[in-house]
Amino acid sequence: MNKRIVMIAFLLGLGVFLTSGLILAQTAEEFIKSGDEFYAQWEDQKALDEYLKALQVEPQNYEALWKAARGYIDVADLITGKGKELDKKRFELYQNAEKYAQQAITANPNDTWGHFYLSAALGKKVLLQGKKEQVESSKKVKAEIEKAIALDPNNDLAYHALGRWHRRMAEIGGAKRALGSLIYGSIPKGSFEESEKWLKKAVELKPDYINHHLELGRTYVAMDKFDKAAEEFKTCLELPETTSKDKSLKEEAKQELAKLQGKS
Question: Can you tell me the distance from the alpha carbon of 64 to that of 57, in angstroms, rounded to the nearest whole number?
Fold first, then answer.
């Protein structure tokens, strides 16, 4: 019996050793390339797994770090349904994304993607927290978005995020803002005009990206520009899917169009 246990333990150890050897036999660049191929095929979990393997080989690899952060966000965003357990899972994934984005910035503070994905991870994580945490994080989120833009003025995703940030801040009305400031501290100001400006910039830079049009349409709804909103939502439905999230984004666009019935 003891010999059998020893043999099983030996085989398990050998398996771990051989697996580790296979990982170390490949370079970080090879794992990143493999991850990129999965990402292009919308296999977000498999892409993330490859980026994490790259980090086992080269823990400070900047590209693997920011792509791992992106991967955790993508996997979390694809979780459907509601409930405490699902929110907990999403929160943990966004926390991991935040961790890897922070490490990416440490590895290379002068590139756009570490800062952008830190802003994205923080922004998504705090939506699962209370109002106090949301207020406290809002300035940090905006600061990271602005750093991403400063480092790459053609980063369409950063302009998208800035547009959404402004809309979210603008949606906090006067009375609610005054009360919130008393309870949680100063709440940053945003405007629908700035939201429109930056989302239009995102569309200009990448006109085939469905989510840019969806969020611009939502800003137009907030501004009572219903005809323009409808145009953006229809564009969402006409564009080809280019990411793993586009199918669900098109469904959201359909729902937004339905809400506009009777409005003009």
Answer: 10
